[in-house]
Specification:
Layout lengths: L7 E7 L2 E2 L3 E2 L27 E8 L8 E10 L4 E11 L9 E5 L9 H15 L8 E6 L4 E5 L5 E2 L11 E6 L2
Parallel strand pairs: 8-11
Antiparallel strand pairs: 1-2, 1-3, 1-4, 4-7, 5-6, 8-9, 9-10
């Protein structure tokens, strides 16, 4: 009883807009939304750019309308990218949390438009900052809210008073905002 006979709808959201609610009518399978089955639908729409979320659900009508949805994969024929939206939950008024619609965000990080740029910036930031965490260095964090220091010593001690003249070597100040 993991399939559904209800009418299923999807809205796809991208950086350039959304499709609006579309009923999934014609599957490549004779009977759609059966347990353990993968259904394939063609949805015509303007190109939405990089996709970030979908809303998928059903109207709750018909016998056995509850539905267990594993995932949705959208293949963009223009960019040749696949967008994966994991669900692995019930869309059923009598199961799980009782919702018959779900908002799912893209879970395939490789399709995130700026992923490579963000990864490069993370690596550059770490390369510029990792010297502070070398053996023998002491870090002092200043908290503007409490106007006090927290000192992290190389031996693992934490000093909430944060002695500014530290016997362990270099002291670096990092500002913490609460």
């Amino acid at each position: 009883n993991a399939g559904t006979e209800a009418d299923v709808y999807i809205s796809v959201y991208g950086e350039r807009g959304d499709t609006g609610s579309r009923q999934l009518l014609r599957s490549q399978k004779h009977k759609k939304f059966l347990k353990g089955q993968t259904d394939i639908f063609a949805v015509e729409a303007v190109h939405l750019g990089h996709l970030y979320k979908i809303v998928i659900g059903h109207n709750g009508l018909g016998s056995g309308n509850g539905w267990f949805l594993d995932k949705v994969v959208i293949k963009d024929p223009i960019t040749d990218l696949d967008y994966t939206f994991l669900c692995h939950r019930w869309l059923d008024q009598g199961q799980d949390d009782g919702n018959i619609a779900r908002e799912l965000t893209v879970t395939d990080a490789s399709t995130f438009p700026g992923r490579q740029e963000l990864e490069l910036k993370r690596e550059e930031s770490w390369a510029a900052e990792k010297w502070k965490f070398q053996k023998g260095n002491t870090l002092q964090f200043y908290n503007r809210l409490t106007r006090g220091f927290i000192c992290l010593s190389p031996d693992g001690r934490v000093d909430a008073l944060g002695d500014k003249k530290n016997k362990y070597g270099k002291v670096f100040f990092m500002w913490m905002y609460a």
